[in-house]
């Protein structure tokens, strides 16, 4: 990668970009687009490693949620929302500062309090990496087992059989 960035072609491209007259907006934009195009053509897009794999995502929606939803007559989306609200909930405290509250103006009773609200925040599964996502799935499997629902591990799952068994979308 370093060799390409140190190449004469890239050096010349950057020189043309730097030399573009700032008062000629179109020229700057054109040179910038040339640099972007060159970078896109010479380097493959690097995807963040923090996201979960496509296979794990297919297993989650096609096996874990499909079985649980199918057993209870729910939609897959309802099952997804339900599990997020149980296992991916976090509480964030918002402070609004000190407030004065008049309990009863006729009685002239008032007191001060710090107004703070603790609000539930439901995380998105898209923010989980593979390990966090597997931990999340393990919690779902444990919960499902307590309800008498068997959710197989990824290497044990027969996607086609599950799809046929739970053919109906609720």
Termini Cα gap: 50 Å
Helix content: 40-55%
> What is the total number of structural domains?
2
Rg to the nearest angstrom?
28 Å
What is the topological layout?
Blueprint: H1 2-5, H2 8-19, H3 25-42, H4 54-72, H5 76-87, E1 89-104, E2 109-122, H6 130-146, H7 159-165
Helix pairs in contact: 2-3, 4-5, 4-6
Structural description of this entry:
This protein is α+β, with helices and mostly antiparallel strands. It has seven helices and two strands, in the order αααααββαα. The chain has a two-stranded antiparallel ribbon with strand order 1-2. A hairpin with a 4-residue loop joins β1 and β2. α2 (8-19) packs antiparallel against α3 (25-42), α4 packs across α5 (76-87) and α4 (54-72) runs parallel beside α6. The model has no long low-confidence stretch (mean pLDDT 76).
Quick gist of this model?
The chain has 170 residues and is an alpha+beta fold. Helices cover 52% and strands 18% of the residues.
Which structural traits does this protein have?
alpha+beta, 2 domains
């Amino acid at each position: 990668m370093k060799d390409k960035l140190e190449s004469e072609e890239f050096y010349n491209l950057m020189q043309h970009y730097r030399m573009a007259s700032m008062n000629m907006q179109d020229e700057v934009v054109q040179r910038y687009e040339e640099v972007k195009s060159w970078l896109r053509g010479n380097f493959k897009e690097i995807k963040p490693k923090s996201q979960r794999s496509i296979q794990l995502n297919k297993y989650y929606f096609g096996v874990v949620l499909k079985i649980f939803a199918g057993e209870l007559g729910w939609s897959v989306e309802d099952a997804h929302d339900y599990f997020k609200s149980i296992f991916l909930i976090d509480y964030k405290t918002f402070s609004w500062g000190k407030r004065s509250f008049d309990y009863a103006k006729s009685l002239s009773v008032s007191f001060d309090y710090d107004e703070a609200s603790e609000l539930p925040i439901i995380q998105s599964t898209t923010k989980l990496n593979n390990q966090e996502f597997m931990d999340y799935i393990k919690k779902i499997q444990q919960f499902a087992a307590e309800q008498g629902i068997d959710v197989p591990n990824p290497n044990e799952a027969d996607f086609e059989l599950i799809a046929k068994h739970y053919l109906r979308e609720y």
